Amino acid sequence: MRRVVRGFWGPRPESADALAGRWQRTLDGLAALVPQAADAWSQVHGNGPATAFTPEGDALLDAVRTAQSAADWSDLTGTGLRLVGTGTPGWEAEVSGLAGGRPEFLLQSLAVILHAPDGAPVPEEDILTLLARVWEPDFGDVSDDDVLDALEDEAGYAVGDPVVGRTGYLSPARAALVPEDLAAVRQELPGGGELLGIAAPGDSAAVVRAYERLREAGALAPLPRPMDRAVL
Predict the structure, then answer these.
(1) In sequence order, what are the residues at sequence separation of 6 or more whose Cβ sits closer than 8 angstroms to the Cβ of residue 80?
(2) 202: number of Cβ within 10 Å
(3) Per-residue burial over 112-124, b = 16 or more CB atoms within 10 Å of its CB, e = otherwise
């Protein structure tokens, strides 16, 4: 089954060292949470084949600096990396990020796409908590193809809109707008923000209802454009 765990935020300029540190904590956290999918890593490039990648020493810092040395790189966009982890047959984790920039319209993001055998337990909420802790996003979600299709078809969701999935994360200002009667399990995270347990796998209708309720309450209002801050 394919699962998507994501975090999004606005402009937050950061140094190469800071970005490499966040990436290192992300990969270390994934190795602890889903070691089945993180035995070996490779880096996917815009041109040419993927190359083996060992996230040790200065490897991540070198990767960030290499990305920033590309002819078309701009700090207005951010620095992108894409890594794929493999391990036990049937398991794979793809981690892609665009971060450290000061864009006016394009959100910064970190996404984990996890492939696991049907029926295998996956710590989805723990992975979203990891992304919230490491990247300090404005909002985040745990979704799958059925959930995203339902949100687009039934609730008018469009790519780039703030969103929650079966599990959602909201930054402190957004969490303050969550209705008290929302049908979700709310968990405050250290440092602020909340994790929302909304629905079990397969219950896309509950996700749509929660998404619409949160949007009506203003908790999923988009960042103003042009963007001038990382979180609401």
Answers:
(1) 67, 96, 97, 98
(2) 11
(3) bebebeeeeebeb
At residue 100, does pLDDT exceed 80?
A: yes
What token pair was written down for 228?
């001038």
- Tokens describing residue 94: 């793809």
98 CB-contact burial (10 Å; exposed 0-12 / middle 13-18 / buried 19+): buried
**Do residues 148 and 211 touch, judged by C-beta distance below 8 A?**
no
Burial label for 47, CB within 10 Å (0-12, 13-18, 19+), is exposed
| Cis status of the peptide bond prior to 49, with omega within 30 of 0 | no
Whole-number Å distance between alpha carbons of 161 and 145 = 16
What confidence score (pLDDT) does residue 119 get?
85
To the nearest whole percent, how much of the chain has pLDDT over 90? 81
Q: Which amino acid type is present at position 47?
A: N
Cα-based distances in Å from 222 to 45, 116, 155, 158? 31, 32, 15, 11
pLDDT digits (tens, 9 = 90+) for 153-206: 999 999 889 999 999 999 999 999 999 999 899 999 987 899 999 998 889 999
Burial of residue 91 (number of CB atoms within 10 Å: 0-12, 13-18, 19+):
buried
Using N-to-C axis directions, what is the helix angle for 145-155 and 204-217, rounded to 10°?
A: 50
